[in-house]
Design brief:
Elements: E1 6-11, E2 14-19, H1 30-41, E3 49-54, E4 58-60, H2 68-72, H3 74-90, E5 96-100, E6 103-105, H4 107-113, E7 117-121, E8 125-127, H5 141-149, H6 151-160, E9 164-165, H7 166-172, E10 177-179, H8 184-196, H9 200-213, H10 218-233, H11 236-246
Keywords: Isomerase
Protein name: 2-(1,2-epoxy-1,2-dihydrophenyl)acetyl-CoA isomerase
Pfam families: ECH_1
């Protein structure tokens, strides 16, 4: 596929989607949102994991404020462009790692936090920058943040619009891991390989179960676990996993 605002490549089952407007810190414009959505909803069968990252010195600075058409009708832009893009991340048919290589601000932060796993460089930071221009957090921020870090920290991030360094974000549970900048590429490569070689059907069921857990009571969650585990137990990957365990070898999962 040919893209203007992103780079997209597949190697060893891992698709790397790089936001590629480094001159503006990979700010999101209409074209980029459409290309992210297209790339994630038309994955080739051989793709088993996705890495979402940014070109240059930042991950994503959020909405491109020079995009006058988007600014003229923010409500329509969010419904017509942001919602499909975020749905493409949260319903991606394979696990998604956000590899946050620098500042992630505004909608750019919430795009990263929509991924299944977020790994950041120690020099990265997360900023809910919306109140700096008189707006409220969007792109899922008001849903994601309180569930990840609690009401008090979410409110503080949103009201004060101050950067949260990656190490602090990891300590809060906002992201999975903050790693030294020098180790970042190797860590991302290794983590993506683990997911690409894993039981992707089980991974997606974990995503489904965790998404439901905040709304379910225990009884409903137990019922969901039973249904999802039943699906996993009927999979070829379960058979392979047990066989490999008994044969004392590494499993070779086929994935969903």
């Amino acid at each position: 596929m040919d893209f203007e605002t992103i780079q997209f490549q597949v190697e060893d089952g891992v698709a790397t989607l790089t936001l590629n407007r480094p001159a503006v810190m990979n700010a999101l414009n209409s074209r980029m949102r459409a290309e992210i959505t297209e790339a994630l909803t038309t994955l080739a069968p051989e793709v088993r994991a996705v890495v979402l990252t940014g070109a240059g010195r930042g991950f994503c600075s959020g909405q491109d404020l020079t995009d006058r058409a988007a600014a003229a009708n923010l409500e329509a832009t969010l419904r017509d462009e942001y919602e499909p893009m975020l749905a493409a991340v949260t319903t991606c048919p394979v696990p998604v790692i956000a590899a946050v290589n620098g500042v992630a601000a505004g909608a750019g932060a919430n795009l990263a936090l929509a991924a299944d796993v977020v790994i950041a460089t120690e020099s990265a930071s997360f900023i809910q920058a919306f109140t700096r221009i008189g707006l409220i957090p969007d792109a899922g921020g008001t849903w994601i943040l309180p569930r990840a870090v609690g009401h008090a920290r979410a409110m503080g991030m949103m009201l004060f619009a101050e950067p949260v360094p990656a190490r602090q974000a990891a300590d809060w549970g906002l992201i999975w891991q903050a790693v030294p900048d020098a180790d970042f590429e190797g860590v991302i490569r290794d983590r993506a390989r683990v997911l690409a070689q894993g039981p992707t059907g089980a991974f997606l069921s974990i995503r489904e179960a965790l998404a439901a857990a905040t709304a379910n009571d225990l009884s409903a969650q137990l019922e969901l676990e039973a249904r999802l585990q039943g699906q996993a137990g009927r999979s070829a990957d379960f058979v392979e996993g047990v066989t490999a365990f008994l044969e004392k070898r590494r499993p070779v999962f086929r994935g969903a």
